[in-house]
Amino acid sequence: MTPDDPPMLYRFIPFLFLALAGCVSHGPALNAIDRSLPERVELTETPFFPQEDYQCGPAALATVLRASGVDTTSEALVPEVYLPGRQGSLQTELIASTRTHGRLPYLLAPGIEDIAAELAAGRPVLVLQNLLLRSLPQWHYAVVVGYDRDEEQVILRSGTTQRLVMSTRKFQKTWALADRWALLPLQPGDAPARPDLDRYMAAAAGLEATGRVDAATASYTRAQSLWPQAALPWLGLANLAYARGDFPVAENAYVAAIERDPTNAAARNNLAETLARRGCVNDAKREIVRALEFAQGTSLEKDVMATATRLQGLRDEGTCPAS
Amino acid sequence: MKSLLQRALVYVLALSVLGLSSPVVVEAQIIGTLAAVEAQQRDKDLATVNGALAREEVRQKMTEMGVDAQQLDARIAAMTDSELRSLATDIESMPAGGDALAVIGIVFLVLLILEAVGVIDIFKKFP
What we know:
Chain A: This is Tetratricopeptide (TPR) repeat protein. The structure holds two protein chains of two kinds. Chain A is of the alpha+beta class.
């Protein structure tokens, strides 16, 4: 070893980088995705909002909201999603703002194939990227507007760059470091290219919980036709009917939900409430016992217990109409 | 002989006891669709913080973080209880997408430090 040679330790640095880059697989290449998807897609009509300082959140959100038909701009969204104390925008607030603008905030399944499928359907997708390290994150929002299978490239609206071309590999890495978070604002009643019941219902129920009744109704109705055998869309429509005081419709829909999933404690609990409300206390008590059985050990247990306790205090007056 | 006062007291007590034993009217409350969806999707991670409490905490933290009072209500109203709960605990640490340009600054800083301690030697061309 001559005096000019660098110390032994430094010789390992290139190997260290190779190990970091090579050992971790961040997901498949575009070449490996579903063959039925097009070779390349680029949604050139997607608007572009060059971001101001730290404001890639409002810029990226404005891009996808505009693409879904909402008349908004990057500046208009700053007061809705920018958090000065963090010099950035939180994922939760992008979701909340999507609701405010009457869109269903659908979170895509964590695969590049799911993004590609949306692009093929003409919808750009908002993604979170971590451009640095897991331990020293640099969070950034961008919008995927295209891909090219041959070139192994992803095309983004990113920061101040209108058309950022990134290798699939680099995209997969930065996206994986952000837990592959991808937001797709949908018009209520529209379905994603590869619909997932749980993801769709979580997004739709969020609309209901924040008072977006019309958007929730349209989404549940669509879910009903997408998954005719699922209980949750019926539960959602039943709860909306109950909330507007349409109890006969609510009761039928709860029954339909229970037919599809006899273990659904929420549907049984709410059916019990509806039955008690029209004087069928004995039926209600029977129903709440089943609800208790299925709610055990779940987060619903406390609520079902409360209903059961309340029903316990009621007496059947024989006012239940014979069915 | 019982005084009028004693008799009145008996009445008041009797009424209050009756009042206690009469069925307390509780507002019927159905289980929300979101609660049902969340109950199916995660069996653990049970909510420990009360929704209203979380809402208040988020309101306070977001005010401290510089959110305009006029916008605060609308921003919070569009969030679900579970979102408010996660914000209440993690708002300081959860990912906040900001500026891509800052990366260049950090990379430059790291290179500068490596140069200064002699690990790399890429700035030698500059005096």
